[in-house]
Q: What sequence folds into this?
């Protein structure tokens, strides 16, 4: 919807961040598992946030084309929940040392990183982690 979000918007909840891009096949392969995970935890104390790192160089040098490709993709795949596009601001990638995707990050209700390299939705270890935290 064109807005912005901050971790403080989710204070009091765990936040599971999915860092992905429209061109990333391993990222897209996680979507069915992520949808199932979201359904299983819909009434729990956790928010799911997707952050796309789509950029101009894979879109003919156009940031506008990169954003449009991301918006269309989110609608077509019905990703739901909070979907963000990092755009031309690389501060998120730099702050969280994102050097490859897919990347999943788990944040606790106080905003602290629980796991900067959290298991993927397809990994049974993720459910075990959630359960161990009482999510």
A:
């Amino acid at each position: 919807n064109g807005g912005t979000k901050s971790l403080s918007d989710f204070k009091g909840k765990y936040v599971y961040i999915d860092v992905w891009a429209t061109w990333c096949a391993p990222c897209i392969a996680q979507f069915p598992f992520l949808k199932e995970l979201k359904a299983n935890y819909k009434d729990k104390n956790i928010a799911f946030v997707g952050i796309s790192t789509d950029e101009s160089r894979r879109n003919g040098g156009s940031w506008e084309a990169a954003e449009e490709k991301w918006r269309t993709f989110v609608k077509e795949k019905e990703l739901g929940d909070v979907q963000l596009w990092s755009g031309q601001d690389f501060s998120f990638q730099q702050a969280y040392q994102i050097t490859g995707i897919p990347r999943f990050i788990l944040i606790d209700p106080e905003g602290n990183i629980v796991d900067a390299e959290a298991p993927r939705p397809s990994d049974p270890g993720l459910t075990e982690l959630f359960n161990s935290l009482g999510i």
Notes: DSSP finds five helices and five strands in the chain.
